[in-house]
Amino acid sequence: MKVLFAAWEMDPYFKVGGLGDVVRSLPNALSQLGVDVRVIMPFYKSLKLEGSLKKRVAKTEVLYGKKLQKVIIYKVINSLAKVPVYLVQNKKYLDVATSQETFAFFDKAVVDIIKNKVINFIPDIIHCHDHHTGLIPFLIKNSNLKVKSVLTLHNLAYQGFSPVDVLAKLSINRSDMRLSKWEINSRKLNFLLEGIIHADIVTTVSPTYSKEILKEMYGMGLEDVLRDYRHKLYGILNGIDIDYNYLLHFKHVPFPFLEPDEKDRAMKHYPVAEGKKLNKQFLQQQLGLKNDETIPLFAFIGRFDAKQKGIDILHKMIRRYALKNEQYQFVILGTGDPDWEERFDWLYNFYPESVSCNFVFDTKLAQIIYAAADFILIPSKFEPCGLIQMLAMAFGTLPIAHKVGGLTDSIKNRVNGYLFPEYSAKKLFETMEKAVKIWQKDKINHFKMIKAAMKEDFSWRRSAGEYLDLYKKLIAR
């Protein structure tokens, strides 16, 4: 079976968000299951190619806007992203990811490369990701190619809009597209909407999210279309690349307590309880928090985005409930909305021994926080999948999360973490109080939960197996 992943980002070459992690890890896991999988993405000027083997493999021309555009294709291989990656280079449209026209051109180029057999790889399935590759399923059908298409929706909040005039540049007649009334009236093309309509299969990054997006609250305006095509909608929970995400960076943790793999046998590892205690003391000292192991330490790692990540109820909970007697400690790590950064900084100024705010992207500090915190807070308003809870559990840090999306699928309440059902600061705090009570007075049950969390299988191999089953069903049609 041959599968081509089409995406606008892939770690380690170019990474903006979690999609880059998925496009690195899932193809690797599929490859280990015997799938011949490759990735194709734009060759941006800012691509990081250090440590990669790069080879020019082909050149072609792509008709776009009545002009032939020169395209060069490179093939790269990296020890971290182990599958072959095709980089599509065009100086005019693909140097920088600045607009939807970048992705319109890229989508056209990908289909032309397959149609004209420019590279020595003709896929059975092309697996598209988010709105950036949303036009590929239609272009595949419009070219009469015998290639099946899968579209994965990572976050419906990002849909990708472009003037309808882009269709002419793609040599597409508007009459061939099933444009929605909204698209016709607004004269804007919704790339993600077109992908949902024309893909053979649509997946989301968790089973619960696939159900939630059929409702107005989570559908982001696409719920009606998604209900129409629910027969081809599937939810598969994302995984984490265990080696890449934490064992590779475990050197940052001062007192490691996970079981070492072969390459880390020389490292000293502590029992879980002792390791977490020592890391907590280290973090408290490093960040200027009161050095007291009896104070529960809560962490938040994420984007400062009130529309999704729940920092509004997090801030309200800390300000209104948690710091009355300074019996809790909070470590905040992330960047985003400057207004929210300022509000959290205000909390730090008033409670410097109880609140630590770190407005940076710091992988090293994140690893230490995962290892040191007693609990990690994930108060997201909506969460298609979420990776924070999986990483935290791998480090024996119990998540306290809003019961939505992939958080529902990965966290079992009072088994490997805690879930609160209502999006409010009060419910978040009430759940924290319950967790702290068990942490303080029922150590046996608390460590039983830690053990369950650390034993969870969130590997990409599990997710890849589900995708492989889906691919087989699609090819058999």
TrEMBL record:
Belongs to the glycosyltransferase 1 family. Bacterial/plant glycogen synthase subfamily. One of its GO terms (biological process) is glycogen biosynthetic process. Pfam families: Glyco_transf_5, Glycos_transf_1. The keyword Signal does not apply. The gene is glgA. It catalyses: [(1->4)-alpha-D-glucosyl](n) + ADP-alpha-D-glucose = [(1->4)-alpha-D-glucosyl](n+1) + ADP + H(+). It comes from Candidatus Gottesmanbacteria bacterium RBG_16_37_8. Residues 2-227 form the Starch synthase catalytic domain. Coiled coil: none annotated. This is Glycogen synthase.
